[in-house]
Amino acid sequence: MSGELDKFKFPETINEQTRIIGLPVDEMFLITTPILAGIGMNMGGQMCIVACLLWLLVRYLKRGKGTYYMVDMLYWYLPSFIFRIFYRVIPDSGNRHWIR
Asked: In sequence order, what are the residues at sequence separation of 6 or more whose Cβ sits closer than 8 angstroms to the Cβ of residue 90?
């Protein structure tokens, strides 16, 4: 019976994020980008500090609520032309419709 369950992956929660070395993908990207750029420019130490500061800032802005919370906040507070690069059809955040 246990052999049948081994082929399935059951997340702990419905919105469990994909993680790399314990970090969500967006945070891992945020850390590795400055570090790799720093190694390429022979400024590895300084860019490690920058990566740490960026990681702390993003963790503070997310407030423990996950990646989609951060994306939602960016959608509401940044101009819509920024997101047109990634999403072709997206309503403007200024057009708010209230549902009763």
From this structure: 75, 80, 83, 84
Strand, helix or coil for residue 67:
helix
Axis crossing angle, helix 25-40 with helix 67-77, rounded to the nearest 10: 80
Those residues whose C-beta lies under 8 Å from the C-beta of residue 21, and which sit 6 or more positions away, are 28
Domain ranges in the chain are 15-85
DSSP labels, 3-66 = HHHTT----SSTTPPPEETTEEHHHHHHHHHHHHHHHHTT-HHHHHHHHHHHHHHHHHHHTTS-
| Residue pLDDT, tens place only, 19-32 | 778 788 888 888 89
State the residue for tokens 């419709």: 97
- Write down the pTM of the prediction: 0.60
